[in-house]
Structures are given as structure tokens and as C-alpha cells.
């Protein structure tokens, strides 16, 4: 009997500690850093989910602190009598944590599974999720964005260019990969080439990787980083429109182009 | 022996079947691609003919509405033709010349409609119309064999691999080049823009390789004593620069520094993920200003700040009076973990814009935007318009008051109140 009682007491104690740990995690789930426009990551996912819980945020929970999150946060600050600056400091964070709930595991599970979901507080969560990826940036559509791009580029552009860069130059130094990405972007600005990234990449004969199918290899993180740097303005090719491998190039025309510099195996020219 | 012959026969049979399958599959693919190319060629040829008619028709009208309709049509057709041409396996030179010429016609039509510059359009298009007719005829001759119903895919392959002078497009290519130069010479603004892009106007004193390394070490002191490989740009490069590649421990990177004046064009360093130092966004901002001070960029301010997986990408612009000069920007890449400078791009900043005085006329945003649109932020900026002219503009962040609070960046010329740009902000 004594044994049963001590087991019961232990069980209740363990349960109590566990639930208090859980509550502590709930109360201090944010990492404590300042969040503002331009921030991204798990803290922003939590911010968006909590703002949605209390009905201030109707956009996609994607971990990117853009204007949608900014206006929602300002509205929250205004309603709760806080300084209205669209920045989540300690005071705003504490107020938001007190006013809302965040089901971290559920939200991250939806994101990982690519489900469409919302996180409103007035509806059971199980009624707020739909399997499968949505097709546009509408309400509740999900999976977290991995990057913040300059406004003129989309994640589709990034993916397509990363495939091209990986297929064309995966054995090249990082500088050479950024340069290949920059050549694609330079063509986008040139009147001599098509108007979209996709048309430039798939223009017949434009890239060897398209012809030999290597464009369909899965790009690594380095290729994606190289594209991201090029999209943010870096151009190690110094405004080149073409590049070629001097060992394999046979076209007389490409050799006639004024050359700029050589990076790894590629000569860049315009 | 019998068994060996039996096995060999089976192997030969299997190989035969396999090669038959592969051949069939290849044939199927060739037919599909052949059909796609023929379709693109047909579409390009028809659009070219419609465009030529449309250009000639535009010469008929003086009435503004009728002419604007035709100009809009020309702009749309030129875009359509460019898209069809981009899907054809033409050799690079022919494709580029086509793109440029057709694009110039479309651009000219758009500008004529936008600016109401109809007289200049009529003046120029007389010649362009007749040149287009010539090109259309030559194109018809050059492409006639591709419509033969023989399914011979090798013809298309030859087009792609031939040198221009060897193939049937030689005349089209040479005429396109000539017409581009005579029909659409560069305007003063375009030519200025190209010069700036090519940094040809730099007339600073030349520096040596060693001095170029000193410039780099001033910006990133922690690569001091790295192993350097310095080469000079090719003789045909539009501006000379030193290409410095460095290795120090796990840091590998490059920098391009102009020979004239030792200006940093760009620098990038890659290194493995570093130990977290718990750096806040404010620290990153402070570090950014410190990096820029070290490099002597005293007149720039942060205009955009984007956090990515391992780095911050930060955009800055030169400040002139109360306005930000966007074309004189510098971009920085800073490690999230350690706050180390991993990249800097100052190519645009090197050759600063010449700023001309321009009147500023106030705008009543309540009249400019529809009710329900709120101007949340406003600042003055210098940016380039369609004609590559630097203009002083209002830049506003406008919020449309709906459920999603959709936000737009709108740039409006401060003198003419012309809308230069509208962007949807995430």
C-alpha cells in the first residue's frame, strides 16, 4: 500500500514538474532577440503564429518578417497600449506571450509537412490544416521560406538558377559559381537576351547543363548561396554576358568576344 | 560449345532489342523537339510578318487614339516575337541580334506612346518598316527548308552548331547588325549608362599589386598575411583591375580592385560556419557602419537589411542632401554567427552619379492614391527612369487597408509626378 502511494506521489510530482517545464517553455519560447522587418527564422514563425492566434495576422506563417507581420505587430502594439514601432522588444514580447498561445510542435509539424494551415485561437487547430502545398502566397498557405530575396526575384528564380549554377559549375571555386549566376542576371538586363530567367536558361544552346541534362541534378547549398549573393548584387564576372571553357570551346565566335577575366576553368567575356 | 553459342545468341538478341528500344525512344524525342521548334519557327515567322504590317500601319495615323492602339500592338508583338525567337535553336550571334533589334522596336513604341513623341516615331519608322520587310523576306528564304515535312532533326542541330558565316542565316545576321546600328543608335543617356557600367571614366592614379593588397587588408584586417594570387584583368576588359584570390586558414575568397585608384569593386569570402557569438541585429548594424568607415565610405546609410540562414545581406546607399542615391549603392554580407564581413560589393558606388538640380513639387497623397490606401513612409531618393536619367523622386511605402494589409513601394518623380516604379512588398 505504502509502495503504491509513493509511486502515485512520484507520478504526480513528475507530471507537475513536466507540466511546469512545458509552461516555462511556453512562456519563454522566444530566444529573446529583437525582431524587426528583415528578421527571419523560428522566432518569426512564433511571432506570426502568436499574432494570428489573437487575430492580428492573417498572412502566411513562413518565418519571414515582412510588411504583413510588421503591420500586424504595430496593430497589436497599438491595441495593447505599447510603443508602436513595429519592433518586437522585450515589453512587446512579454505582452504577446501573455495574450496568446503558441503550439510549437503543431506549427513546425505543419511546416515540415508542407501543409496549408492557420493558427487562430478561436478555432480548434485540427480544423485549421489542409494537407499539401498551396500554390500561392495566400492566407494560411505554408511552408517556411528559406531565404529573403531582393524584391524583384522569386524563390522559383532562385531554385532554377541554383540548378543551372550547380549543373554548369559545381567543380568551380565559389567565386566562379557566383560569376555564372551573375552572367544569367546580366543577360536579364541586356536587350540581346530574353526577358525572364527561365527563358534565358532554357534558350537553346545557351547552357551546356541544359543540353546534357545536368541542370536536373539537385543543387547543393553552396550553389544556392552563390545565386543568393549574385541576386544581392555581387558580380565577380565584372558585367560578363558569356563564359566558356577554353579547353573545350570550339566556336570561333565565342573566342572573338572581348575577354574580361578567368575564374577557375571559365573565361568570362562580353 | 553449344551452350556458349546459345548464350551468345540470347545476348545479341537482347542487345538488339535494347538498341531498337533506345532508337525508337530517341526518334520519339527528336520528333517532339522537331515539332516544338517548327511551332516556334512558324509562330516567329507569322509574328514577324504581323509586326512588319503593324509598323507600316502605324505610319498611317495622326489620330492619337488610333496611333496609341497600334503602338501598344507593336510593343506586344515585339515581346511575343522575342519569346518565340528565344525558343529557337539559332546560333548565338543571330539570336542576339534579333533580340536587340526587335526589342528596340518594342521599346521605341512604348516610349512613343508614353511620352507622346509621335513625330519622332513617324520619322524613324519609315526606314525601320522597310528594313523589317527586307529582314522578313530574308528570314522566309533562310527558314523555308525547315518547313519541309521530312522530320530531319539534324538540320536543326546544324543550325545551332554552325558558325554564322557558314549557315543560311548569314545575310539575316549581317543585316540585323547593320540595321541595329543605323536604326537605333545609342541615345546620350544609354551611352552614359554604359560608360558608367564599364567604369571607363576613372582617371585616378594607377596602383601596384602590392598596394591593391594593402587596400584589401585595410577593409578586412583579419586576412593579413594570407596567401595571395594576384592576376590582372584581360587586355580586352573594359577597365583594368586586379583579381586577388586569397587563402588564409579556412577563409578562401577573392577581391577585384581597380588598377586606377585602387577602388574595391567586390570582395567575397567563404568560410565554414563559425561559433555563435550571440550577436544582435543592432551589433550587425554597428559593425556595418564600422566596416564602411574602415573602407572610407563615409557618406552611405543602410537602406535594407535581410536576415538569411547564415548571413545578413545589407544594402546601403549614398546620402546626398536629404535624399538617398540608389544607383550609388554598396552591398555587404555579414556573418550571423560572428559578425565577420564576408562580402562587399561597391561596383556601383565607385563611379558616383553626377547630380543635377531638379525642382520638387509637392504631392497630395490623398488625391494621388485611392481612398483606403495609406502612405506609411515617405523619403526622397535619386533613381534612374526608363531613359537612364537620374531623377529625384518620392519613395513611399503605401499600405492598402485590407485583411492582408498589402503593401507597395511606389516611386514617383518629384517634378513630373510620373510613376517610375511600383513594387509589391512581402
Automatic annotation (TrEMBL), chain B:
InterPro entries cross-referenced by the UniProt entry: YpeB_N, YpeB_PepSY1-2
Organism: Ureibacillus manganicus DSM 26584
Protein known as: Sporulation protein
Any one GO BP annotation for this protein: spore germination
Top-level taxonomic group: Bacteria
Domain (Sporulation protein YpeB PepSY1 and PepSY2): residue spans on this chain: 167-355
Domain Sporulation protein YpeB N-terminal: 26-115
Pfam family, one: YPEB_N
Amino acid at each position: 500500500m505504502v509502495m503504491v502511494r509513493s509511486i502515485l506521489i512520484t507520478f504526480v510530482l513528475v507530471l507537475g514538474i513536466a507540466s511546469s517545464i512545458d509552461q516555462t517553455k511556453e512562456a519563454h519560447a522566444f530566444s529573446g532577440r529583437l525582431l524587426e522587418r528583415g528578421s527571419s527564422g523560428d522566432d518569426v514563425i512564433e511571432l506570426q503564429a502568436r499574432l494570428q492566434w489573437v487575430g492580428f495576422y492573417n498572412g502566411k506563417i513562413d518565418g519571414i518578417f515582412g510588411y504583413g507581420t510588421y503591420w500586424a505587430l504595430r496593430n497589436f502594439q497599438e491595441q495593447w497600449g505599447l510603443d508602436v514601432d513595429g519592433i518586437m522588444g522585450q515589453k512587446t514580447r512579454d505582452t504577446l506571450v501573455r495574450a496568446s498561445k503558441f503550439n510549437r510542435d503543431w506549427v513546425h509539424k505543419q511546416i515540415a509537412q508542407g501543409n496549408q494551415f492557420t493558427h487562430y485561437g478561436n478555432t480548434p487547430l485540427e480544423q485549421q490544416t489542409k494537407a499539401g502545398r498551396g500554390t500561392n502566397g495566400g492566407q494560411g498557405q505554408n511552408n517556411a521560406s528559406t531565404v529573403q530575396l531582393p524584391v524583384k526575384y522569386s524563390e522559383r528564380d532562385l531554385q532554377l538558377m541554383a540548378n543551372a549554377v550547380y549543373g554548369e559549375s559545381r567543380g568551380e571555386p565559389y567565386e566562379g559559381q557566383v560569376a555564372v549566376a551573375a552572367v544569367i542576371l546580366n543577360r536579364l538586363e541586356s536587350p540581346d537576351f530574353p526577358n525572364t530567367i527561365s527563358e534565358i536558361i532554357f534558350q537553346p544552346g545557351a547552357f551546356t547543363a541544359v543540353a546534357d541534362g545536368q541542370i536536373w541534378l539537385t543543387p547543393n547549398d553552396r550553389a544556392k548561396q552563390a545565386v543568393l549573393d549574385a541576386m544581392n548584387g555581387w558580380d565577380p564576372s565584372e558585367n560578363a554576358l558569356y563564359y566558356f571553357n577554353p579547353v573545350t570551346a570550339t566556336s570561333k565566335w565565342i573566342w572573338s568576344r572581348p575577354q574580361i577575366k578567368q575564374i577557375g576553368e571559365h573565361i568570362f567575356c562580353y | 560449345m553449344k551452350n556458349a553459342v546459345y548464350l551468345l545468341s540470347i545476348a545479341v538478341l537482347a542487345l538488339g532489342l535494347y538498341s531498337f528500344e533506345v532508337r525508337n525512344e530517341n526518334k520519339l524525342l527528336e520528333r517532339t523537339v522537331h515539332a516544338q521548334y517548327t511551332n516556334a519557327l512558324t509562330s516567329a515567322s507569322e509574328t514577324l510578318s504581323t509586326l512588319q504590317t503593324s509598323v507600316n500601319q502605324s505610319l498611317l495615323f495622326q489620330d492619337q487614339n488610333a496611333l496609341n492602339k497600334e503602338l501598344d500592338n507593336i510593343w506586344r508583338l515585339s515581346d511575343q516575337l522575342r519569346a518565340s525567337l528565344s525558343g529557337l535553336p539559332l546560333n548565338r550571334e543571330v539570336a542576339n541580334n534579333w533580340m536587340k533589334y526587335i526589342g528596340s522596336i518594342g521599346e521605341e513604341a512604348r516610349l512613343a506612346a508614353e511620352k507622346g513623341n509621335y513625330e519622332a516615331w513617324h520619322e524613324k519608322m519609315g526606314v525601320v518598316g522597310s528594313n523589317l520587310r527586307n529582314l522578313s523576306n530574308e528570314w522566309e528564304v533562310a527558314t523555308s527548308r525547315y518547313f519541309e515535312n521530312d522530320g530531319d532533326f539534324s538540320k536543326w542541330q546544324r543550325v545551332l552548331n554552325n558558325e554564322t558565316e557558314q549557315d543560311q542565316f548569314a545575310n539575316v545576321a549581317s543585316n540585323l547588325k547593320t540595321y541595329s546600328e543605323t536604326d537605333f543608335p545609342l541615345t546620350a543617356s544609354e551611352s552614359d549608362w554604359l560608360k558608367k557600367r564599364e567604369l571607363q571614366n576613372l582617371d585616378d592614379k594607377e596602383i601596384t599589386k602590392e598596394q591593391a593588397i594593402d587596400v584589401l587588408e585595410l577593409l578586412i584586417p583579419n586576412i593579413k598575411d594570407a596567401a595571395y594570387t594576384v592576376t590582372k584583368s584581360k587586355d580586352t576588359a573594359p577597365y583594368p583591375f586586379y583579381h586577388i584570390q586569397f587563402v588564409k586558414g579556412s577563409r578562401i575568397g577573392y577581391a577585384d580592385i581597380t588598377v586606377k585608384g585602387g577602388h574595391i569593386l567586390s570582395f567575397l569570402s567563404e568560410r565554414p560556419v563559425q561559433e555563435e557569438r550571440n550577436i544582435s541585429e543592432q551589433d550587425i548594424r554597428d559593425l556595418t557602419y564600422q566596416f564602411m568607415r574602415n573602407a572610407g565610405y563615409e557618406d552611405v546609410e543602410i537602406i535594407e537589411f535581410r536576415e538569411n540562414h547564415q548571413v545578413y545581406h545589407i544594402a546601403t546607399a549614398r546620402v546626398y542632401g536629404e535624399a538617398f542615391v540608389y544607383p550609388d549603392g554598396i552591398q555587404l554580407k555579414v556573418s550571423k554567427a560572428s559578425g565577420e564581413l564576408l562580402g562587399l560589393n561597391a561596383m556601383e558606388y565607385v563611379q558616383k552619379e553626377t547630380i543635377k538640380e531638379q525642382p520638387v513639387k509637392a504631392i497630395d497623397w490623398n488625391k494621388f492614391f485611392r481612398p483606403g490606401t495609406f502612405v506609411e513612409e515617405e523619403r526622397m531618393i535619386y533613381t534612374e527612369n526608363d531613359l537612364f536619367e537620374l531623377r529625384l523622386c518620392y519613395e513611399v511605402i503605401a499600405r492598402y487597408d485590407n485583411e492582408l494589409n498589402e503593401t507597395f513601394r511606389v516611386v514617383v518623380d518629384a517634378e513630373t509626378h510620373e510613376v517610375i516604379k511600383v513594387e509589391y512588398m512581402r
